[in-house]
């Protein structure tokens, strides 16, 4: 039994070493990803139910490594955040997204708004506002067409800095959406302090609407909260017609999800807009 214990321990040790190695490998690979052109953006349509039109797109980052293959952003974004790489990558994402708006425009396709995910580390940076301003100047994109998606985890950090930066961005005309709304642990007080335009109902609630009464109630409550505070509300992760019907009936007219389109290359989104879904 004693031997077995030791073997088990050795097994775990080997397992941990393998994991640490893999993680280190991923880190090293990620540090060079931008320079090696391994990152790209996909765009998921944001759909308006009333008009049946695409009014926006969310930029979603993809990384394809020559040996590791496709690595999910859910895996590499946290690493990029930890090793201090997210601001560099995030700056690239912001610029690419704005350039894409221009490219579409040249092709006669106008998307009103581009939503870009930004990490807390980016929002905390002193120079965030200058950086975004510079990108908007360089690309000529009107600030009102750029929406930043942030999560509630923002509030667990340097709140003063975060509030100052977000207010400055709001002054520029950039809008702000709270991503994964309802899934965080923060109190709702921040809704008064931050210059928010939009709430994005977390996918976990949308998954359950029309099958779980609790999720119906939560989604309804978020829609009512948005209405009361004068905020727009968008639902993410809409996969079924029943979910879309529920949302429309409850007064949430902006939706995003596989039912309307997966994250796709820029040209595919333009085609989708031209052909209808
Ligand atoms: P998120 O911002 O909450 O993005 C929504 C995720 O749900 C995306 O996963 C999207 O592909 C997926 N999704 C959209 N509609 C549906 C649906 O109907 N059903 C299902 N099952 N999934 C759906 P993705 O692209 O893997 O991104 C994962 C997360 O990685 C994002 O979550 C976001 O937090 C982060 N991320 C992606 N791109 C960036 C980026 O450029 N910067 C930062 N900081 N984070 C990013
Ligand atoms: Ca998002
Ligand atoms: Ca989300
Ligand atoms: Ca999410």
From TrEMBL:
Residues 23-277 form the EAL domain. The keyword Kinase does not apply. GO terms for biological process: cellular response to nitric oxide. The keyword Membrane does not apply. GO terms for molecular function: cyclic-guanylate-specific phosphodiesterase activity. Keywords: c-di-GMP. This is cyclic-guanylate-specific phosphodiesterase. The chain holds residues 871 to 1147 of 1147 of the full protein.
